Amino acid sequence: MKIKILSVAEQSDKLIVEFECQAGKGLARWRSSPCRIIKGQDISIELDIRANIVLGVNASYSEELSPLITIEDNGVISMRLVVESQDEDGLAYCRLSSDCLIMVESDGCLLLDIGRSINLTLQSYELELTVI
Question: Whole-prediction pTM value?
Fold first, then answer.
C-alpha cells in the first residue's frame, strides 16, 4: 500500500508512525529500519493487523461499503474493511484500499460474511508497517 508519512513518535521504545493513504489517516508501529523514516515521504508498505477479529468486542458489521481508516481523539484506530474471502481455518482477507489486502485472524470458528464491511477498532501497536 502506498502511504505518506505524516509524523513519527517514540512510544514505549517503539516507533509509531502517523500516515495517510487512500482510505484515510492511521497510526501504526514501524517494523523496518528507523533510518528509513522521512516525514513527508511517500513509500510502499505492507500493513499487518496483530489482533483477531472478535465480533461484539473489537469488530462489528457495517452497512457502509467504502473502506476507511481514521484516528480517534483517544488514539484508537478505527478501520472499515471489506471482507473478500476467508479460509477454513478462520484467516480472513480484507480490503482497505485498492492497493491493500490485509490478512487477519478471526476468533475461533467465526465465519464472516463475504462482501460485507466490518468496523474494526484497534490500538496503534496492533497495526504494524513494514517497508516493501
Answer: 0.88
Partner residues linked to 71 by β-bridges:
77
The number of distinct structural domains making up the chain is: 1
d(CA 90, CA 103): 10
Q: Which residues pair with 53 in a beta bridge?
A: 106
Domain assignment of residue 76, given as a range: 2-131
Closest to 126 in 3D by CA, of 77, 56, 55, 71: 77
Per-residue pLDDT of the chain (132 residues; tens, 9 = 90+): 999 999 998 888 888 999 999 999 999 999 887 666 788 999 999 999 999 888 889 999 999 989 999 999 888 999 999 999 998 888 899 999 999 999 998 876 677 889 999 999 999 889 999 998
